[in-house]
Amino acid sequence: MRAACAALSGVIAGFASLAVAELAAAVVRPEAGPVTAVGGAVIDRTPPALKDFAVRNFGTNDKLVLELGILAILALFAVAVGLLTLRHRIAGSAAVLVFGAVGAVAAVGRPEGRVSDALPSVAGALAGAGVLYLLSGRLYPARSYGERPAGGFDRRGFVVAAGIAAVASAGAGLLGRRLTSAVQAGAEASRRDLKLPAPASPAPAVPAGAELGIRGLSPFVTPNKDFYRVDTALVVPRVDAGAWRLRIHGRGVSRPLTLSLRDLMGRRAVERDITLTCVSNEVGGPYVGNARWLGVRLADLLREAGVRPPSEGGPADQLVARSVDGMTIGTPVEDVMDGREALLAFGMNGEPLPFEHGFPVRMVVPGLYGYVSACKWIKDIELTAFDAYDAYWVKRTWSRRAPVKTQARIDTPRPFASPRAGTVPVAGVAWAQHRGITRVEVRVDGGPWHPARLAAPAGRDVWRQWVWEWPATPGSHTLEVRATDGTGATQTARRAGTVPNGATGRHSVVVDVS
Question: Which 8-state DSSP code applies to residue 264?
């Protein structure tokens, strides 16, 4: 009984630590909370292979799994220090300070870390140590007064103290959440009240034949709620549109710029359909989507700042974009100034960017994987050189340059489906941003390639739907697809993983025709 109460003391102390830390983080900033800080530090130090494993197996729930794992470890640690107080009350209570030290170091050590970010972890640790010391005192026999309580410790006193500590901790945690919600409410209101400008250059109308209308086929435009999200932010930044600023500076910038959102939206707005792809996308994977983006051409802003691309003698060959969460993304200057529709986007499918996709402003560069182009929650653009600076993912063994590779995906029939014999539509999407798709072919069981019918082209920066009418016969069959891009190059059959610059190979599915 005494050991169980000691373990419970540790758990209550851990709860108190997290609650007080969350309250303090609401005052400092939500990203400084210990779970968020430690989780971010884990992500920063995760090997690429393990990161790919997490994305592949947990998808967009990878961050939730990480947070639950951290909480589970904290719970075990709390139980251990609680049991330690049975033998060494002071040592066990002091051990809670280790929790604070880890959180503080992790918070300050993040790319965007500040000294003040250590405060939530320190405050939480002190509160937890105090609670554990007080509760553990109830587990020792009375020595200086009265008789020794039955069972060897003051059970009633422990229950009362534990109840008070738990209620007080819950109150602190609830207050912290309310304060955080109040801060976030301002950012959410700024997004809700934002009126997007009409594009001076609207997107061309989507051709009537760009949507094949086949059941199970990905729609030409991916709804915002279904658009993939892959990033390292455990807490989605909530940036107030009115307070947001973007700074453009660095090598070759003769006229540095600092822009508000109003300044940005006051410039010539451009609307374009652009398909984005994550480098973590396995062959046939889901991390690709097409949206209609509204923003300002990045090349126009760079030229306004006096920037010239390397082909014109400019001294900078890398653009380093920095996010409010500390992410750094390095993009070739030549690519964003070669005429492609590289945008600083503030609109997505007719509405302000969702917070999950970078509100208030993000980068969108067709033809490059997101990790070298698609900075969300952007706040700073520095012109520099690849030889002078390695961005976040480059430091973790990914390539400095990463053009999107030609890929095709079978959306229907699904793997292990059981269609009936007869004509079965085999359909999907293919992409080769900034090169376009000119041919898609399908084969069955390694046989001859059959040309698929392509949807009407809607531009070389967007994916293209395709369909092949398969005269299916009973039995188990393997369907395989390949695409050819606008340069005449057909995607390779050689299988390669996502590291260091994107997966290769051909997508295939096995079906059982009845």
Answer: H
Q: Within 13 Å and on the Cβ side, how many CA atoms surround 206?
A: 19
The length of the chain is 514
Q: Residue 171: enclosing H or E segment and its boundaries?
A: helix 155-192
pLDDT tens, 154-168?
Answer: 788 888 988 999 999
32 φ/ψ angles, rounded to the nearest 5 degrees:
-85, -5
Minimal CA–CA distance to 108: which of 100, 121, 118? 118
Residue 497 near residue 449 (C-beta atoms within 8 A): no
- Asked if omega into 413 is within 30° of 0 (cis), the reply is yes
Paired residues of 451 in beta bridges: 441
Kindly report whether the peptide bond that precedes residue 360 is cis, defined as omega within 30 degrees of 0. Answer: yes
Tokens encoding 213: 């209308």
Cα dihedral: 153, 156, 162, 168 (round 10): -150
Q: Render the burial of 17-26: b for 16+ CB within 10 Å, e for the rest.
A: bbbbbbbbbb
Closest among 122, 169, 171, 123 to 9, alpha carbons compared? 169
- Using DSSP's 3-state secondary structure scheme, residue 301 falls into helix
d(CA 160, CA 130): 16
Q: Which amino acid is at 343?
A: L
Give the H/E segment covering residue 422. Answer: strand 422-431
Q: Which helix (H) or strand (E) holds 511?
A: strand 508-513
262-319 pLDDT tens trace? 999 999 999 999 999 999 999 999 999 999 999 999 999 999 999 999 999 999 999 9
